[in-house]
User: Which sequence fits this backbone?
């Protein structure tokens, strides 16, 4: 099993995605999103659980505790995106959002993930450091928002 940080040709950094979509008006996002996301830099996050999304390509993740402040940020981002993006992925929409930090994808045996995680290191206390619009195919930032 390879972690996402070891995938060649990408610049994967641990992150929590707030939205996912196919197309966007980047110039308008560059104006609409910074006022929404900027005030959340420094916000504490707690990664408290290990989880799996069981889909055609199994995904292992650390679950982020969904605080009121994180959910306010999420709702604010989606309100700002309204009319500026198309092809939004339902799993990231308000009401279905599962805040998480992906660890690995496409593995066969979930037990390998459990064995790789040191339970004594969870929960992990972190903070929002930056906010970016990212191309998910490469992991590269398209635009720093905060």
Assistant:
């Amino acid at each position: 099993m390879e972690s996402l940080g070891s995938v060649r040709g990408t610049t994967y950094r641990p992150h929590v995605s707030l939205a996912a979509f196919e197309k966007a008006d980047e110039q308008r996002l560059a104006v609409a999103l910074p006022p929404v996301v900027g005030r959340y830099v420094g916000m504490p996050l707690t990664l408290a659980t290990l989880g799996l999304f069981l889909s055609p390509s199994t995904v292992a993740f650390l679950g982020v505790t969904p605080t009121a402040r994180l959910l306010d940020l999420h709702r604010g981002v989606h309100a700002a995106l309204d009319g500026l993006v198309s092809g939004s992925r339902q799993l990231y929409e308000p009401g279905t959002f599962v805040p998480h930090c992906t660890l690995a994808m496409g593995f066969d045996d979930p037990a390998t993930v459990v064995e790789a995680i040191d339970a004594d290191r969870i929960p992990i206390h972190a903070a929002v450091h930056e906010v970016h619009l990212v191309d998910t195919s490469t992991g590269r930032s398209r635009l720093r928002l905060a």
Notes: The radius of gyration is 15 Å.
